[in-house]
Amino acid sequence: MRPPSLKSSFQVNTLLEIANQFGTPTYVYDERIIRQQCQLLKKHLTGIHTRLLYAMKANSHPAILEIIRSEGFGIDAVSPGELYLAQKVGFSPEEILYTANNITDEEMHLTQKAGVLLNVGELSRLERFGQSYPGGDICIRLNPQIGSGHHEHVITAGKTTKFGIPVHEISKVLDIANRYHVRITGIHQHIGSGISSMKVLGEAIGVLLKHAADFPDLQFVNIGGGFNIPYHPDDTPIDFENFHTSIVSLLKDTNEKANQKLEYWFEPGRFLVAESGALLVRSNTIKEANGRTFAGTDSGMNQLIRPALYQAYHEIFNVSNAQASPSSYEIVGNICESGDIFAKNRSVQQIREGDILAIFDAGAYGIAMASIYNLRPFPAEVLIREDRSITCIRTRQSPEDLIHTMFASYFDDAS
Q1: For the whole prediction, is pTM greater than 0.70?
Q2: What angle, rounded to 10 degrees, do the helices at 31-43 and 62-70 form?
C-alpha cells in the first residue's frame, strides 16, 4: 500500500498553525492553487473565441468568487441564491448564465428581471418562456445522449438522466421558438462531473456541433464543464496536450469549415477549486474493534459528504505525526449514521488521539454540500492568500448561535 503523502500545495507547519489558531473542523483554501488552475485552463484554450464561466455550485464562498472573477471568469448559476450572491460579488448580468433545472415561473421571471440569459432543458419551460417573453433570447440545454462522470449520480446526460432536451427533439424546440419568435442564441450540454475521457467528451461535443446549424440565431456553444482532478494517488491529471488536440482543434476546425464565428463557452467548477481545499479535522477517539482500528474525528459526513454519497476517495495525511510509519485505519466521523466514513482500510501515519488530519482535494463540493444534520454547526473556513497570509473567511458558529438562527422566530413567538 502506497504511503500517505502531503499535497504539494500545503505545508505541514501552516496547516498546524491554522488548526491551532482557528480550531477544527476547518476548511482551508489556497488562493495560489485557484489562480493556477484558472490560468492553466486559459492557457490551453488558445486559438478559439471562448467565454469561461465558473460553476459556483462547487464552492460559492464570496472570497473564492472574487478570486475567480479577477481571473476573468463569469458565472454559471443554478438557483436564486446563487444569482443573488453572484450579483452581490460584482458579476454583471452579461457575465451570468442561469441554468434552469425544473424551475418555477417565479425563478424564470427573476432571471429576466435581472437581465440574465436563461438556459432551459425542458420543452414545457421553453413554452412558458415564449408565452411570457415573446421575442426573447434564450439558451437551450441539449442531451447528446452521451454521459460520463466519476459516479452514476453525477452523470448528467444519456438515456436515463433528468437533464436536457434529447437531441432527437430539436424539431420540437424549433417549433416552439418559431411560434413565439424566441431567439435561441446558445446551445448547451453538460454530460457529467469528473470527466476523465477526452474521447467521450469529444463525441458529445461532436453531437452538439452537428446540430449547431439547426439554430439560425446561434451565437455560442456551451461545452459544459466536469473536468476531473486527480483525487487518488494513482490518478493522472488531465492531459492538456490531448485536450488541445482532440477538443480545441475540433472546435477551431468546425468554425473554419463552416465559416462561423461561434463563441465556445466552458463552465468548470471542480477543476478550479477542488485541489485548493483541505478539511482539517481532529482525531478524538482511537478504538479497536473486530480486528479494525477506528480513528474517530470531530467532523463527519455532514461536513464532507462525498465519501458517503459517491464512495469518493480523498487523500488523508496526519499533519501532527507526519514522519510516523503508516498503519491501516477506518477514519470515521461523529454523525449518527453507519455510512459516516471518510476512509476504509486507509494507510495513514500513526494516528493518536488529538492529532490533526488533513483531508485533501476538498475545495469543491465540500462545504457547498455541507449540512447541519445532527444539529452540528458548519465548520470555519480559512483562506491562505497569495502572499501566504492567513484570513478567516467564515467564523465557526456555536451550537447556541445555530439554534438561535434556526428557531429565533419560534422562541420569540413563544416568549
Answers
A1: yes
A2: 40
